[in-house]
Design a protein that fits this description.
The protein is α/β, with parallel strands linked by helices and about 400 residues long. Helix content is about 20%, strand content about 30%. It contains ten helices and 25 strands. A five-stranded parallel β-sheet has the order 3-2-1-7-18. Helix 1 runs parallel beside helix 8.
């Protein structure tokens, strides 16, 4: 494949930022255009539900001198359509012979969700929600997932009366099985948060939430955090393949199936031999790594992309770190007692092979797990489940 002379990167998040900086670091000297629909310069998203919402910082702008890099940055340029060789935006058309699609995700919304209900996806969302907390006595959060728990934690720390509502039977139901998620339930009451599970929402507005059965939660601030969907509607007539969830389907080198077109970040679904199928990952490390890989492969590197997924969440007085990718048939083993007060870890095994780890305030387990998952190591389950023994010491000898 010939080296492109005009590269367009669509998306002003970490994946797009990583793509353009990698192109220059790897010696690319052609034209680069970076398009983002927001008015802000590209910024980091994980701190929005942490440092920004707490008031520690006001911005998370990613460090880069785009002028010095020779990158033409266009803000307020929402992608509207992809045609052969050009991206059509709200502000103009941009021709390319190399493209990285990294438009991220949009928050899911509830039917009838009013405009005065808060979401948390952008910097403007985070700053607006932080300001709303300042005058709030009560907060209702719909969704007991990663974002919902982080928002509830900060609202409670601000002195608000907080209620968290979820239709599932356990918190984190979209990411973790009930046998793990149920152990997080007591954390809410420890922080004075009213957790209501198995509670479907029938109506929602800026002053409260109506629940099936007739209950209503009145609140000064209402926040919805029920997940996100790939922002790919603009690709509908492009000829690119979209999965049922809207994700852009790419191959093991992040190619989207058209010459010179690659995907990165939240929007892609990619094949993972390590995980045993196609997966979609929505976290910081993946955004950074896939942006780099897409850029390098656009330049002809031919790298296979199959990382060990990793993410973290600070919530309810704990740090949760997840490494790997587990499936429905994997065996669950606990290190330590998740029903106690001490740190603990959940392991998922397929046979004896370690597949994934969720560590609650056990960072050493995360360090060991990343190394073991990277090489597909098998472990002795009875040893791996002993919190007094390092996870690295539970490895079965090769062969």
């Amino acid at each position: 494949m010939s080296t492109p002379r005009r590269v367009v990167v669509v998306g002003g998040g970490l994946a797009g930022h990583s793509a353009v900086t990698t192109l220059r670091q790897d010696g690319y000297d052609g034209a680069i255009t970076l398009l983002t629909e927001e008015e802000h310069r590209p910024y980091d998203r994980p701190p929005l539900s942490k440092e920004v919402l707490r008031g520690d910082v006001d911005t998370t702008t990613l460090e880069a001198d785009y002028d010095a890099l020779g990158v033409a940055l266009h803000t307020g340029a929402a992608a509207e359509r992809l045609r052969p060789g050009e991206v059509v935006t709200a502000t103009g058309t941009h021709a390319f012979d190399g493209l990285v699609v990294a438009t991220g995700s949009a928050p899911l919304r509830l039917p009838g969700q009013a405009a005065d209900v808060h979401e948390l996806r952008t910097l403007s969302d985070a700053l607006g929600l932080r300001a709303a907390f300042g005058g709030a006595g009560s907060v209702a959060v719909v969704g007991a997932g990663w974002i919902g728990a982080e928002v509830a934690t900060i609202a409670a720390a601000r002195g608000c009366k907080v209620t968290v509502v979820d239709a599932a039977a356990t918190p984190l139901a979209g990411a973790l099985p009930a046998d793990v998620g149920r152990h997080t339930v007591p954390w809410y009451s420890e922080h004075g948060i009213d957790l209501r599970l198995d509670s479907a929402v029938t109506g929602i507005g800026g002053s409260g939430v109506d629940l099936a059965g007739g209950d209503r939660i009145d609140a000064d601030v209402v926040v919805v955090g029920i997940g996100a969907r790939p922002r790919t509607a603009w690709l509908a007539d492009s000829g690119l393949t979209l999965a049922r969830d809207g994700a852009l389907v790419v191959d093991s080198r992040l190619s989207a199936g058209q010459a010179g077109v690659y995907g990165a970040g939240d929007i892609i679904r990619f094949p993972s031999e390590r995980s045993g199928g196609e997966i979609r990952v929505e976290h910081w490390e993946h955004a950074a790594a896939s942006g780099r890989a897409a850029a390098r492969n656009l330049l002809g590197a031919g790298e296979t992309y199959d990382p060990v997924p990793y993410f973290w969440s600070d919530q309810l007085g704990r740090r949760l770190q997840y490494v790997g990718h587990h499936g429905a048939g994997d065996r669950l083993v606990f290190r330590g007692r998740p029903d106690g007060d001490e740190p603990w870890t959940a392991l998922w095994l397929r046979g004896d092979v370690l597949r994934a780890v969720l560590a609650v305030d056990r960072p050493r387990d995360v360090l060991d797990a990343r190394r073991l998952l990277g090489r597909g190591a098998a472990v002795r389950p009875e040893v791996a489940g002993d919190p007094a023994v390092r996870l690295a010491e539970a490895v079965l000898p090769a062969g």
